[in-house]
User: What shape does this take?
Amino acid sequence: MNPTQEQQAIYDELAFIASGSNPGQNIFIQAGAGCGKTSTIVTGAEYFADRPRDVNYLAFNRSIADELKTRLPGEIRASTFHSACLSALSRALPKRPQTDKFKTKVIAKSVIPEDRQEHYKYCVPRLVSLAKNSGVLVLAPNEIQTYVDLAILHSIEKDTVKTDWHEAGKYCAQIIERSYKSLDVIDFDDMLWLTYCRQIQLYKYPFIFTDESQDFNAVQLALLSRMTYPTSSVIAVGDPYQAIYGFRGALDNSCARMIDKFDMRVMPLPVSFRCAKSIIRVAQQFNPDIRALPDAPDGQVVHLYDDWSLNTFQPGDAVLCRTNAPVVRLAFQLLAGRRQCYIEGREYGEQMITLIKKINPTSISDLPKLLDAQVQAQPDNHMLFDKAEAIKSLCLGCSNTSDLITLIDTLFTKKPDAIVLSSVHKSKGLEWNRVFVLGWHSLMPHPKSKEDDQQELNLKYVACTRAKRELFFIEPLEKTRD
Assistant: This one.
């Protein structure tokens, strides 16, 4: 297939950058959903194949890095921020640090008094992680108010009704101090945070590629500067319309900040190779620049509202929803109807199980009211509300909490030739021929979100662009029909 006009312009610019004619030239490739960003970058990397040691491709995660290693030309390296920082720490320290994902929890156990553990066992490590990704100690002060603000901003769940964010902040500040001094053992967040705060020297490269730039946090953006020379060129790929991970600590304006920081020329990649024309027309409500291929099929977009049943779905279909509780309810109903299905995002199932264990009910009949008490104590925490509703929807089908945990594990186990259910967040990067969006009108944007929340609009864009040929909008039913 011949490149699009925009792809050719990017190839020409990459060839010019690789020639060294204009040192320090930086570009931001704004790639729409399904617009061939990876294939474009892999093809463009051919211009750098004769100087692989000068190039580093910083992938968003290890799975993307592993895929790129098989596709990038020559010996061009693909790594992640975490692997680059771990290598830097290993070079700078007397011995390579051991990695322990439980480091923060171990320190927390020694900091939090035993009689206060039940109130802060889960929320404090979560706050510490967010603080590290925010660059605490350098970009933010290590003080109680920093953690209070993070708890509110990210809707962190309180462990019990007696959890107090100011007390939590006191423990977090102590844990951060100990984490900063503890270099023999590090966790995943430490790799970036300690490298940044301790000003550990990173390898610099004349040419750096980055992907998923819309999901950068403050520390990643700062570290990128430390990996460049004044004459380096940064080639970043991202889509501000797919920025949906603010709750994890990603900057809500990462693309704009990167473009400004590196004085980047913005180059569009707007032609979707994935979506049918009718689906692109929906997507253009959120991203007016995205376009379909001229010879793309028309496809179809159908508003079914409540005119659907369990038999509407076929193996290989995907059902997406803004919140998880409706997805969990539907999965349970499909399972009861002997329909093969599973829910994407195993970690969400693990979070449900953690919440059940944290509450530790004496019987399953007590669990719904105990969940309601947790929600009432945190009325603005929509993530807790969602998990509580998901768990409550499964309680009636189980005789005890052990059965409930087994059921959750079953629902989140992948199966072949199945109907796939997913939150919109977990669907990012995936695609299906037929996609059903559950609650397009009633659950998007989230009922508790702010009216001007751009990330809620981005979620609609991500949801509709998962569909290749057919897109259906459906609404939750009080009782799903067989």
Q: What stands out?
A: The CA atoms of residues 304 and 474 lie 5 Å apart.
